[in-house]
Amino acid sequence: MAERVTGVEPRRGHVDRDDLPRFLFGPEDVVVAVGPDGLVANVAKYLENQPVIGINPEPGRNPGVLVRHGPGAVRDLLRSSTAVEERTMVSARLDDGQELLGLNEVYIGHHSHQSARYRLHSPDELPERQSSSGVLVGTGTGSTGWCRSAWQERRSPLALPTPTDPVLCWFVREAWPSPVTGTALTEGRLARDQELVIVAESDRLVCFGDGIEHDAVGLTFGQRVTLRCSRRSLRLVTA
User: What is the pLDDT of residue 8?
Assistant: First the structure.
């Protein structure tokens, strides 16, 4: 559940997680996200600089990385909260103008989790044709989740970013060597002004953020997606 709060005597609106893609947040809103940490990640992609207060209704079940406050803190935070942490987000922009954002990571792969075929262009490297289980591009917030799993499994020496670093990390999952596909480019970092470009070389690839597969965009053969740090960030209220 997320609530919008506006004004001195707040006007409140209520929206459930499933309705977030259809809900319009106003520029003056303060968003109170009540639920697990993943709710904050879900709501972040629909915001434009509105501050978010994460409320943890079940401290014994939720880690509280993004929902840091108990229900009793809401009133004081709405009245006097000033400390805001700017968390980096990742942008995936298709060549047809569609854009998808993620707070943790964006995944590009085959819609049925078969091998995806594509051409990968990374900064300062020659492009490489690959066949893999997909590509993860993550933030410092996501470096505690799916990206960390990929990083740890391969015992990567790559330095993972912190949540506020304007840096992304990326990992190719299970790249397959063949006469026409390579495995030289499987991980890296992207500074704020750098881009990772993926050009689809098979049909029915998908791109989705933060594990929300039903909110995916599709890529057809020859279509391009550009991944970089988003101009938006999550403004997470800390105190």
Answer: 54
pTM for the model stands at: 0.89
Q: For residues 186 and 98, state if they share a domain.
A: yes
Which residues form the domain of 60?
2-81
How many structural domains is the chain composed of?
2
Per residue, the 3-state secondary structure of the chain, as one string, reads CEEEEECCCCEEEEECHHHHHHCCCCCCCEEEEECCHHHHHHHHCCCCCCEEEEECCCCCCCCCCCCCECHHHHHHHHHHCCCEEEEEEEEEEECCCCEEEECCEEEEEECCCCCEEEEEECCCCCCEEEEECCEEEECCCHHHCHHHHHHHHCCCCCCCCCCCCCEEEEEECCCCCCCCCCCCCCEEEEECCCCEEEEECCCCEEEEECCCHHHCEEECCCCEEEEEEEEEEEEEECC
